[in-house]
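Why do we care about 3D structure at all? Because function follows from shape, and shape follows, mostly, from sequence. That is the central idea of this module. The next example makes it concrete: a single protein chain, its amino acid sequence, and then its structure expressed as C-alpha cells.
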Amino acid sequence: MSHLTDSHLAELRGELERQLAKLQNSMTVTDEALKTVELDQTAVGRLSRMDSLQNQSMAKGLREREMVRLALIQAALKRFDRGSYGVCRECEGPIVFERLSIFPESETCGRCGG
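And the structure:
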C-alpha cells in the first residue's frame, strides 16, 4: 500500500464504508420486496398479483447483485485490515488511486482486470 498516501487510504476506506452502509439500507428495502406475495383472490386482483410476482422476481435478481457487491466490499475492507489493499491479486503490482477511486472494491490493476 506504499503507493497510496494516508489521505488516499482514508478517502478510499471512507468510501467503502459509505457504500457498505448504502448497500445495507438497500438490502433492507429489498427484503421487504421479497416477502411472500399474497395470493388471496379477494384481497388482490389478478393483475395486481401478477405485478407483485413480477416485482418479487426483479427483487430476487437485485438481491443476487447486492450479495455479490456486499462480498466485494467486505473483501476490500478485509484487505485494508491485512494491509494488502491496493495490491493487485494477479500480478501483485500496485492498483493506482484513480482506479480505486472509481472502483474502491477493485482487486486487480487495470492491466490484469481490464
